[in-house]
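ok so i was messing around last nite and threw this chain in just to see what happens. nothing serious, just curious
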Amino acid sequence: MLNLKVLRRRIASIKSTQQITRAMKMVAAARLRRAQERIIEGRPYADKMREILQSLSLRTDPEAHPLLARRDIKKVELVVITTDRGLCGSFNQNIFRTIARF
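result:
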């Protein structure tokens, strides 16, 4: 009888964990959908910025501006984006490991 109680309690615990996992999955899907919508909404602005920068770079003599001149690469700067929320597993550690190898 004791084993049956333990087994039922374990089954209930697993069902509870399943419900929590399902809810978290739905929340993540909603957030992802919102993020994708924001990207799509921002695309026209990015396209216009690219168009403006290309237009400016074509009108400017590359020799006249130091940022547009070609030169040897001496230093490289990395912009690293990590998470500040939980449930990302070893995502941040993997990013920092990759950076260290760079």
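not much to say yet. Residues 2-101 form one domain.
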